[in-house]
Amino acid sequence: MTPLKARSAGQALSMALKLGQETLANTDNPAREARLLLAHAAGVDQAGLIQLDISDFNTEVMSRYADLLQRRSVGEPVSKIIGYRDFWNHRFEISADVLDPRPDTETLVAAALKGPAPDRILDLGTGSGCILLSLLDEWPRATGIGSDLSDKALDVAQRNADTLKLTDRVAFMVSDWFSAIDGRFDLIVSNPPYISADEMRGLSREVLNHDPHLALTPGGDGLAPYRVIAAGVAEHLTETGRLLVEIGLHQGPDVSAIFRQAGFVNVETLPDLEGRDRVVTATVR
Ligand SMILES: C[S@@+](CC[C@H](N)C(=O)[O-])C[C@H]1O[C@@H](n2cnc3c(N)ncnc32)[C@H](O)[C@@H]1O
Fold first, then answer.
1. Ligand 1, atom 8: nearest CA belongs to which residue?
2. pTM for this model (two decimals)
């Protein structure tokens, strides 16, 4: 892409955005995505676009923009290209090693925050750390452990904790669900991989090619992590503790049954903003 032949910064901006929208015509929101990618190419945030000078639309920036548009047009998610995703109150670094945090997961954060402030929180399968770090930020006296099977994911979570200045209240550890976890927690949260083997076949390339397989599916019926969590959670919850797990669209009845059979009470399914089952919550008594 050559530098835009514009006579003013405003004209260069609108030409660049028009080009981006045309290239991304088949994506969900071409206007928004073009703005995000242009801002990333120019090294500014979206609000900074209107402050760019005409000289900022130079060959280097425009060829970087062309490269980002190309990556997006072949299915790479914008968040993976720009390296961050806004979730709850903060911006989280993400990479190919972590699930791109989904807006639906904010339902779990909102539901957790309706309960009493915990002293200790455990987040199983923490990924980018988006759930745990959002909760720790909301509850300034709480401490937390984030665990994951992926040490590369934990590196990302640790960097997010550094950025959010939460390192003195959080620890991350590699653990296969509860295997390396000691002690009891007032709140245990998890958004485990829950897509069944059948559903994986229908997933978009955008998700399949860019979110880690380990973060998406445990294989089989997708319920294995809930069974493992249900079997281990009583040993790690305080007497008044709460458990909240994110679930897939049709998993409410099965996941509720798993927790009831494991002896949990107050088992409830909560909807997301679109009214779909999204979270199961339970207590030990
Ligand atoms: C759906 S992602 C959730 C990530 C993050 N908590 C979020 O909500 O965006 C599931 C996470 O569970 C982790 N995971 C998968 N199998 C695991 C296991 N056996 N033990 C611990 N974590 C596991 C994955 O690496 C991934 O980070």
1. 191
2. 0.94
